[in-house]
Every structure is written in C-alpha cells, then in structure tokens.
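user: can you give me the structure for this one chain? tokens are fine.
assistant: on it. calling the predictor now.
[tool input]
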Amino acid sequence: MKPVIRKMALSGVCLTILLSTGYMAQAAGPFFPRQTVYNFGGGYSPTAFYGYRGIYGGGYYGGGYPGYYGGYYNDGSSLIRAQGQANVDQSKAMVNYQEATSKYIDNQKKLAETYVERQKAKREAIHQQAEIDKELAQQKQDAIEAQKEKNLKLQESGLSPYYNASTSQDQETLNASQLNPATGEISWPEALMGPEYADSRNKLQELYSLKNSTGITSSLSREIQEEALNMKNILRGQIKTMLPNDYLAARGFIEGLINMGKTSRTG
C-alpha cells in the first residue's frame, strides 16, 4: 500500500513540475518564444537573438528598438533637419541685418552729404549777399562823396543844393499812405528811421493818435509843431552825409506833419 502511495505522490510531483514548467514557458513567451532552432555551427541559435528582439520589441537591426538604428536615426535626422533649417534661418537673418545696416549707412551718408552741400550753398549765398551789400554800400558812399564835392562847389558859388524852389513849406502835406486819416498812423520814410529820431517818432505818433481820437486843438497843434521842429533840427545836422533827394524828401515829410497838425490849413 505504501509503495503505491509513494508512486502516486511522485507522479503528482512530476505532474506539478510539468505543469509549472509549461506555465513558466507560456508566461515567458515574449522572451523565449517557440522557434525552430537551427544549428549554424557557431553554437548561437537564432532563437536567442529572436528572444533578444522579443525583449526590446523588434530585431536588433530592425526599427522596433526605439532610440537605436530605427527610431534613433529617425529622431536624429529630424534633429539634423531642424538644426539645418535653424542655420538657414539664421543666415537669412544675418543677410537681412547686413542689408538693413548697409541701407542705414547709405542713408546716413546721403544725409551727411546733403547737409554739407546745403551748408556750402548757404555759405556761398551769405558770401554773395555780403559782396552785394558791400558793393551797394560802396556805391552809396561814392554817391555821397560826389554829392559833397558838388555841394561844396555850389556853396562856393553862393547857391544851396538843398533848396527846392518848386515847393513851399506852408503847402507841404501828406497823403493817405504816409498818414492814415482813419487811425492817425504815420508811415515814416527811411531817411527818418534812424535811432536819433526814435524819441521824436514816438512822440509825434502819440500826438497824432490823440488827434485822431479827440480832434485837433490849439495846444495839440502846438505840441505837434514843436516836436516836428525838433526832428527837423536833427535832420539839419545830417545834411552833409545825406543825398539831396533824401534830405529834401525827409524835410518835406516833417513839414507835412507840421501842416497836417495845424488847426486850420490853407491850400
């Protein structure tokens, strides 16, 4: 009876071992799948390599091993292409930058050249104007010197170059462009615009503005006459440095102010 039991127990152990082995073989299928084993003479069976492929999901030289000959080189080529594109983009950016810099330099150069040309033209214009002014001043001075010599000869002969027989001091008047009848504003001739006449000009303008607003009175007329005579005396002091026509025009203007300021005028 005992030998039978021992045999049955041994049979059960063997069966358990066989079942365990089959289970382990089935569980390890991806690592050691069933394959036909070929003998290549070197002792290495393709089953081992196949099992290695099974571990990593593909053949050693296949595309299944991520990050190696398959996926590695695919990812690497994408990286290389991206790096190459980045280099191309950087090169284009450098070219654009250099072109922009070149254009900026050209524009600055043109601006500088334009500025230099304008300054040169300005200096030439100033120089030309100075030459013109100098020539005009010389011509005026020559005319004054010639007139002085002529006046001297006339004075030696007993005649005055500043006497105008065709006009009378009592009849000298001013037109509307010289004395505005609506506002009393006086438009002074150039010969009376010197600084030595400034006080008399301001006083006479004040008196004529008052005359325009209040009307003429004897006292106002007297003030106009006194200030005009004061201006006339200043004019006489410049007789030797003025051309006769300028002197006669300035004297006639002052006499016109005197006559226009009178309370009653004849003629």
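assistant: here you go. Residues 137 and 143 are 10 Å apart (CA to CA). Confidence is low (pLDDT under 50) at residues 30-35, 44-70.
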